[in-house]
Amino acid sequence: MEKEKKQAKTKMEVKEDVTKKDGENQETEELRTSKKQDGETEEESEETYEKKRIYIDEEESPRSVLEIHISGSESDHSSSSSSSFGSSSLDEKSAAIERGLGNKDGQVVQWKNLFGQIKKRSVRRFSIVPLLWVGQDFSKKSGRRKLGRNRGSEENLDCGDMIVPKPSWRNFSFEELVEATDNFSPDKMIGKGGHAEVYKGRLSDGQIVAVKKITKQEKNDDDRAGDFLSELGIIAHINHPNAAKLIGFSADGGLHLVLQFSPHGSLASVLHGSAENLEWKIRFKVAMGVAEGLHYLHCDCPRRIIHRDITASNILLTEGYEPQISDFGLAKWLPEKWAHHVVSPIEGTFGYMAPEYFMHGIVHEKTDVFAFGVLLLELITGRRAVDSSRQSLVMWAKPLLEKNNAKELADPLLGDKYDGVEMKRAMFTASICIHHLPSLRPNMKRVVQLLRGEKEPLEMKQKSMGGRALLLDACDLEDYSCTTYLKDLNRHMELVME
Ligand SMILES: Nc1ncnc2c1ncn2[C@@H]1O[C@H](COP(=O)(O)OP(=O)(O)OP(=O)(O)O)[C@@H](O)[C@H]1O
């Protein structure tokens, strides 16, 4: 049985207490989107920007920061506030989810029904699965309607004028889940996070599943229901081999998600919690799979998503060690456009959070890219994102990455049993993913290319030949120096650990 204690979550609430002590008000940040719209600082001139992105051959994302739009009208069309934004109401969350699922009236009505039932707590059992059309894009912008995204939609439902595919996920009764998990027996518990307990279960047809029981106590019913809907809406929307698969849900007798069971549990448990030495081939496969899954979330799924909590505990491993990104509890829909925004609270897992996020609450694809860089470092080194002496893996690894020192970086358990070329690719990719400036981090498309060895930049070739970085060390170029970054990181660490 796998039970793991997840790394401490850092939240704005923690910071709030301290900031009050310090007399500073960091509760909310009003931030202006930059000219470049991708987390780039305003001071950066075009010229400097071009100079610095020598090896980052990528298209910048057209959209950047997740926020609550405060100027009114636009948010009606494009915002995607969700559960963790403290100021959004349950209705706003529901509306955001509806937007994510599609814009057709019928779907919205059905979604509202589910939402209303959960909200009122009057539900006994949903007899009709309300998540029709999930996974289809009715985006006004693209004018396209992507059909057939529903997993396993073999039959159609006749809804008056429209024939819609029947989704494959089910609405379970509480009794079914009780039976599947031996009444949520402690023996069946396979994982526990900050918000949920996860049980291994066997359905009446013999299928083995993971039942995620939402346990978050600190929030009120509305918030909990909002969070549940948000996670359900997102996980139902996605369809990729490297993302967790939804089998069903239950809002009867508590909130539950029923997910495909991952026999090897989480990457964290395999990498850090067992005697098993994960061979390099699998580590690299996991890195590739997570990169592809994240690329899908950021770019390819019908409505784009930021995960916000990429950690080794949130990567599950299938029978064949195929990684699956899981835990969409903090995930957000990517909005279409923004002008101003407020981001709070800041939630995530310490050790994986990008500096612009933990310092200013700025969330965009590049915050996931930073976390992916930390995950790569974990795979390379076998170390935790934050070790028992509270040392950050990023800070430990940076000098070794700079020296291109694979021998010292590589997990001692690997010995010399790794592919040198793949190791160098992974090291180079990690080094740019953890760059303190988001604009200098690659996007996930580029990350996939780099790991595959496609379109290798000159700097990587130089590094592969044993040389140090010749082109640039952005730490020397930026006002926001490594020292400042270290100070910020230490300050953040103090706040969280106090
Ligand atoms: N489908 C699954 N198959 C096997 N194990 C799972 C599955 N889903 C979750 N787990 C285990 O349960 C743990 C907790 O799950 P999860 O991360 O979804 O909970 P959470 O409370 O939402 O976490 P967080 O604290 O990050 O919010 C995972 O780290 C993993 O070990």
UniProtKB/TrEMBL annotation:
Q: Where is the composition biased (Basic and acidic residues)?
A: 1-39
SUPFAM superfamilies with a match to the protein in the record: Protein kinase-like (PK-like)
Q: What are the alphabetically sorted keywords of the record?
A: ATP-binding, Cytoplasm, Kinase, Nucleotide-binding, Phosphoprotein, Serine/threonine-protein kinase, Transferase
Protein kinase domain ranges (all copies) = 184-459
What EC number(s) does the entry state? Answer: 2.7.11.1
The subcellular localization recorded is: Cytoplasm
Reactions performed catalytically? L-threonyl-[protein] + ATP = O-phospho-L-threonyl-[protein] + ADP + H(+); L-seryl-[protein] + ATP = O-phospho-L-seryl-[protein] + ADP + H(+)
Comp. bias (Low complexity): 78-89
Single GO cellular component term: cytoplasm
Return the Gene3D superfamilies for the record. Answer: Phosphorylase Kinase, domain 1, Transferase(Phosphotransferase) domain 1
The main location class comes to cytoplasm
Region of interest (Disordered), ranges: 1-56, 70-91
Which residues are ATP-binding? 213
Quaternary structure, per UniProt, is: Interacts with ARAC5 and ARAC10.
Q: What is this protein called?
A: non-specific serine/threonine protein kinase
Which species?
Cinchona calisaya
